[in-house]
Amino acid sequence: MELGVYTFADVHGGITPERRFAQLLEEAEVADSVGLDVFGVGEHHRPDYAVSSPAVALAAIAARTKRIRLTSAVTVLSSDDPIRVLQQFAEVDLISGGRAEIMLGRGSFIESFPLFGYDLVDYDRLFTEKLARLLALRVDPAAHGVYPVPVQQPLPVWIGVGGNPESAARAGGLGLGMALAIIGGMPERFVPFADVFRRAGGTRLSINSHGYVGDPDEFYPAWSEVMTAIGRERGWPPTRRPDFDALVTRRGALVVGSVDDVVEKIRFQHELFGHDRFLMQTSLGAMPHDRVLQSIELFGRVRAELSPL
Predict the structure, then answer these.
(1) Which tens digit of pLDDT belongs to each residue from 100-115?
(2) With a threshold of 0.85, does the pTM exceed it?
(3) Where exactly are the structural domains of the chain?
(4) Is 3.20.20.30 the CATH number for 2-305?
(5) 29, 31, 35, 39 alpha-carbon torsion, rounded to 10°
C-alpha cells in the first residue's frame, strides 16, 4: 500500500500566503526524503487557503523532489477547462520525470462556480461532460492538438468521492482510481462505497483522512478550529473534545496517535477496505509548521512498518 500526505495549504494564524508556500515546499521535500509515496495539493478559491492552482504548486514541488508522486487533491473540474487541466498536468509530469497524477472532483466548496461564471444549477452536468472530454483527450492528446505530451501516457486520473454512491459507480465504471474521503464517523460506514466502486469495475482505491502522527493534544486545537468553522458555514454544531476523542479510537475516522497507533489504525482500515493507498492531511488550519514536519517524518516510519502491505 502507498502512503502519502495531502494539504490545502491553509492560511491561518497570521501567516502570509508567501510564507505558506515556502512551508508547503518544505513539507513536500520532507515527505520525499522520508520515503512517502504521494504528495497532494488541493484547489480552493478562499482567503483561508493558499493554492488556487494545484498544478502550479506541484510544478514547484516537482523541481524540489526526486521520487514522490504528485497529485492534486482535488482539481475542481466542473469550473475548469479539461484541455487546460491536461496541459498543466502534462507539464508537471515532464518537470517531475513522470510523477504527476490528477485527482478530479467537484470540490467541497462552491466559490469557483460564481468566480468563473458558472451556475450551480449545472453542477452535475458540468462535471459529467468535462470528465468525458478530459478522458477522451488524455488517451492520445497529440491527436487532438493538445500539447505538451506527458511522460506517462495516459496520465493517471483519480476521482475524489465524498460519500456519493453514484460517483463511486462512475469512477469504477470508467476504470479510474477512487479517492474516498473519510473525515467523520466510522470508516466501516463507507465500506459500501468501496463495494459499489469495485462492482462497477474499479480497482485502485485510496482512503483520504485527517491525521497526525504524534500527541493527539497537539492536533486537537487546529482540527477543532477548522471543523467548527466549516460547521458554522454548513449548519453543523460546534466540534467538542468528546467528538475528537471518539474519532481517534480504533473505529473512528481520525488517524491520530503514536507510530504504533497509526500503524494499527491503518491496518484496521485495510481489513475493511483492502485499499491501495492512504493519504493523510496533517497540515490543517493553524497546525504549527514544526509539528507538521515532525508528523511527516514519523509517517515515514509508519510507511516502513507497513511495507509488507
Answers:
(1) 999 999 877 899 999 9
(2) yes
(3) 2-305
(4) yes
(5) -110
